[in-house]
Each structure stands twice: as structure tokens, then as C-alpha cells.
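## Example record

The block below lists the input lines for one assembly entry, exactly as stored, with component labels intact.
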Amino acid sequence: MKAKPVSFLESVDLYFNRASKALKLPKGLARQIRTCNAICEMKFGVELRGGYEIFTGWRATHSEHALPAKGGIRYAPFADQQEVEALAALMTYKCSIVNVPYAGSKGALKIDPKQYSLKELEHITRRFAQELDKRGFLGPGLNVPAPDMGTGQRTMSWIADEYQKLHPSDINAQGCVTGKPVHFGGVEGRVEATGRGVQFGLKEFFRTPEDVKKAGLEPGLEGKSIILQGLGNVGYHAAKFLQEEDGAKIIGIIERDGSLLCEDGLNVEAVLQYKQEYGKVEGFPQATFSSNGAALLEYPCDVLIPAAMEGVIHQENAARISCKVLAEAANGPLTFEADQIIQEKGIFIIPDTYLNAGGVTVSYFEWLKNLSHVRFGRMDRRFVEAQNERVIELIEGAIGKTIDPSAKEKLLEGPNEINLVRAGLEDTMREAYHEIKAQEDENEKIHDRRTAAYALAIRKIADIYDSMYL
Ligand code: GLU
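Predicted C-alpha cells for the full assembly:
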């Protein structure tokens, strides 16, 4: 008889156990870190369409070694408590890996947002925000949600506005959620952040000769073939930047209705436009469509980027995966069994706990902006530009020539918000890449990047617990 497949939550716990075994920790501490501290199921009625509808939502605070606890809110018809717990745990490890001083949290509402009008969604979200607030799961110093699957900037604005109404004297109220629109306390670059982080993470991989060699590839992203699953916010931005800025070739895209394949490369922007116009990718010109989308996960390519759901690579299809690098843009795309099979095949995994941490990293920047009540670059931009101008004048005077105007423009530019956010994110992703690698290089019990990433997170959290009096 075949063993029952492990669930998402079990996979996360098994990854954790594999890593904690490689570390020396005080008795019971690993268990304390792994355990979800609090989970609340909320059932609340909303007056809709001439009657009442009952909704079920959850918020889990996985850990409280740092505050606030941070993580997205998902709106999905398949949401359940175990999924929320697994995602909250991933948030704890993710924040620790990229040195973002938060604990992990996650929320979900069991709803198919497509079945409701905007007005209705606003009403439901405001009611959910009230429930979260009432139970201590919302607040700039306590618990700070963000967008996830099925939610976005608008959802976050409603939550922020509801929180502000409930706490009119809280001067930091805007920091109760991140992922808000820029005109409502958001930060430039948050929408693209997770995809941007995937790009920076992959660039760092291709800049690390030892890892590139392990994967059987040549350095540099130029011309590398990529298959992407999921053209949502994360997948779209990652693929777009990798194509337009790094010269990678997106040969395949898997969407809800099927997959597109084109060996010469698909234009990501054009595919998105098509999907938005027709609600599907079938019929996109100059590409081969297949209604069996999942089969394209197995097609040979340099980099496979699952950017949709958890558990898409499992014990049934793992042995047939034929990429060289598996870049986990989604949360938990591989089950524990699949992870073992993929490793045996020698495929290099860049794990989710690192690779998709760009979202929460820029959320952290947004929260800092909210607490400081000032836009990044507001104080120093003109000052730096004036200084740069003086330096250029001196250089021009010394060489007796004027500098080319377009080069001059670039040299003059002072720090603005988008540039600072991107630079801060790039620095975060590059540093964390090497912190994880060092963990693998220095611990003889660790032989893969996921275990190294978990071990790094556990080590850092254990150090915090160690200096606390429980
Ligand atoms: N939902 C995103 C994630 O899974 C972002 C979380 C955040 O920004 O707090 O990482």
C-alpha cells in the first residue's frame, strides 16, 4: 500500500526537523520554535444581498520572539487552518533568514473573491478587520497583515482604514498593514517586490560559480531557458525582469487553463495582456498550447519557477522534473517527498524561505516609512544632488571638458524612494544568499540549501530565545 502523502504543514515541520537535527540546541527549544503559538478561527456574519452570510477566517501567530508578527492574508475558497499554520511558520523562518525583525503570522478567509462585487468585498473585509482587531491580531506593534493570494492593495487600504477608525488616536495606525497603495501610506516598489526578490536571488545564484557548477550550468542569466508556473503578481514580475533586464528566455508559462510553450521565448508582457483580455492563455499566437498545464513542469529547461500554489511538485511527478535549478517563488511548491526525489536527481533547489522573501522585506521598508512618517529620500535627495553637482563641476574643471549629458544625469541623481527600496532589497537578498551558503559550507551535517536556510533561521531564533527569560 502506498504511504499517505504528507500535508503542507507536515512538510514544513519535516523540513524543520531535518534542519534542527543538524544543530546543537537546548532540549525542547526546537519544539518551542516549531510550534504555532496561537491560531484563531473566526466565524462572522455579514449582511449581504438582503440576508446574512457567515464567513470563516483564520489568523495564526506562529511565533512571538519578535514583534510585530507579520504575514499575508489569503482569500481563497480552499483555505483551511492547516494551510494557514504552515504559511505562518514559513513567515517566521523567512523573516529570520532575510534579517527582517518580525515573527511569522498568516491569515486566510475562505471565500472565492470572484463571486463578490467590490462593494461586497469591502464590506466583508472591513468586518474581517474588526474581528482581527477585537482578538489582538491587528496593530502596527502587534500583527501586521499584507497581501497574498486573492488580496491586494485595495484589501489592505480597507483594513488600514477600518483600523484607523477603530483607533483614531494611534499615530502609527497606517503601519497596521503593508502592501497599501502609495497614496495611502504604501511604499514605492512593494507590488513588484516579491518578483524583484526572485530576480535578485536568481542573479546571485548565477554569480556564485560553485553553485552554478553544482547545477551543471554556465554563469550568467543571459539566454537561460526558464519555465514559469503562475502569471500572478509574483510570477509576472519575476519573469518580466528576468527577461527584460537579464536576457533570460521564458520558454514556457503555465496558467490556470493550460500551458504555452515557445522555444524562442515568450514575451511575458504580451502574454499578460492576452490573459487579461481573454481570461485565458489558450490561443496566444506563436506558442504551442496544451490544456494539460502541469505536464510542462516536467519539460527540460535551465530554471523552473513555480510561482503559484503549494504542493505542485509531489511524489507522483517529482521524478520527471527535468530542470537544473528549481527556484521556489511560491510558498511550499514541493512536498517533503518531492524535495527528497528532486535532491537525488541533483537539481539545485533555491528554497522558498529565501527566494520569495522580497515581499516581506519591502513590507518592512513600508512599515518603517509608516512609523517614521516620512517618504524615503525626502530629507537627503536634493542635498546629495547638490553635492554630486559640485563634484561634477570640479571634475569638468580639472579635465577641461564637459561630461556627456546622459552620463551626467545618472551621476547627478540623488536617492529617491524606488531606488532606495530596490537597493535595500538587493542588498538583503545578496547578503542572505551567502549567509545560507555559509551555513551549508560550515556544517558537515547539511548538504542542501533548504536545510541550510532552515538551520540559519532556527539558529538565529534560538539565539533570541536564549537571551530571553521565558
Ligand atoms: N504574503 C507575502 C508572503 O508570503 C508577503 C508577506 C508580508 O509582506 O508580510 O511572503
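The longest strand covers residues 38-48. The chain has a mean pLDDT of 97.
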